[in-house]
């Protein structure tokens, strides 16, 4: 990561220079600067913990609930595969795979616009609108009679769901310190496992609805769609847009919430799009290394829609397959929770923990390829082993938020990473072709190679960031942004100049030479 000079845009926006301080336009700094500027007292640890617990109580349940709903909705296609959707809508194998691909292609095409929307508009409200639209789209699946109808519905799902992970990454960095982010991202991501359990039981229940005009897969779409619509309404009224305006915090608590994350040196947010930060993000090597990891780690994610078909092919009945899908959820919950807990407790261990959790995945791929086809229990356990490595992707999400500063840079990096995520997910379904059945050796070998590459990437990123930290440690102190002021109106209408801490100047991780990358 090469050093770059201070932002040209910030230089252009300098209003005046008096003696030894600089006045800068308010729109160039973080939104938190106005609230925290001029406050010099130390943060009371007990008060900080109290505010953190209050934040947890109000936003973590909502984030966890939405994430399990999102994943449950995303996997309705896979669950519907054994509930009759392929027969009812006359889907061929290739058409079924294309429905999985088009979801991620639409996700990809709208990922950058979604991130711009998350910057320009209130985060909570923007996500709520997207949740509501995809809830309607999910219900509409039940009315589809052919491939074309399902294709359109999947497009809308992909467009709308593209706002959620990006929005949650932004919100997590707004409210939590870098160590706390590792745990919180893990908490809301492990709800994917909860979704698999709940959707498994819902699917099991729909198989017993036999006296209506609707088929089980249609009931699954309607039930999950209604749950999603309820969540959208709840989010609109209950989810905060930022710690600077969180409805459940008093003005004093908002200041504490912002002061808490000062150590991140990433600020809260900035509504002003900065072209030079976007360019920096695109030229930063770590952006593309994280993106490559995201793409390769999500090619195996095509198992989401194939898992029920694979397990069924081992000789299990539809009812057994549906219930066994719940175990996948348990595996994901346990491994993500233990992984993020280890990474949070052991300093600078994200890459090591993520790599270690990919080892069982490689073992699972090996076993599923070489065990006897008659050993259906062994094959089943092999498939379950391939779910352990999800922890690596979770750690990557929180790691990326922690090593990226500058709000425009952050949304650009998120867009690139999630676009790569879409490419991996869109490419994955093409592996699963009828000619490879039943053993599917070719897809499983590709999956194994992807996992090996992901291990190498995590360790490579850690090496580069550690080297950059050491280089910055040897640089002379940079005081370019130590004496910056903005103009603020007092309660009685008077104008005053207040100093803004470097942490809230909306500097990027490259511009701020005091920034150190967590490992």
Structure description:
This protein has 519 residues and is mainly alpha-helical. It is 66% helix and 4% strand. It has 24 helices and four strands. It has helices spanning 8-12, 33-36, 45-74, 76-80, 85-88, 93-109, 111-120, 123-141, 147-161, 164-175, 178-189, 191-206, 216-238, 251-260, 275-283, 285-298, 303-313, 318-345, 350-356, 359-370, 376-385, 390-402, 407-427, 441-473; strands spanning 14-18, 21-24, 484-489, 495-500. A four-stranded mixed beta sheet has the order 1-2-3-4. Strand 3 and strand 4 (495-500) form a beta hairpin. Helix 7 runs antiparallel to helix 23 and helix 18 packs across helix 22. The longest helix has 33 residues, at 441-473. The protein starts with 7 loop residues before the first helix and ends in a 19-residue tail after the last strand. Residues 2-20 have low confidence and may be disordered.
Task: Give a short overview.
By secondary structure, this protein is mainly α. Helix content is 66%, strand content 4%.
List keywords for this structure.
mainly alpha; disordered N terminus
Helices and strands in order:
Blueprint: H1 8-12, E1 14-18, E2 21-24, H2 33-36, H3 45-74, H4 76-80, H5 85-88, H6 93-109, H7 111-120, H8 123-141, H9 147-161, H10 164-175, H11 178-189, H12 191-206, H13 216-238, H14 251-260, H15 275-283, H16 285-298, H17 303-313, H18 318-345, H19 350-356, H20 359-370, H21 376-385, H22 390-402, H23 407-427, H24 441-473, E3 484-489, E4 495-500
Parallel strand pairs: 2-3
Antiparallel strand pairs: 1-2, 3-4
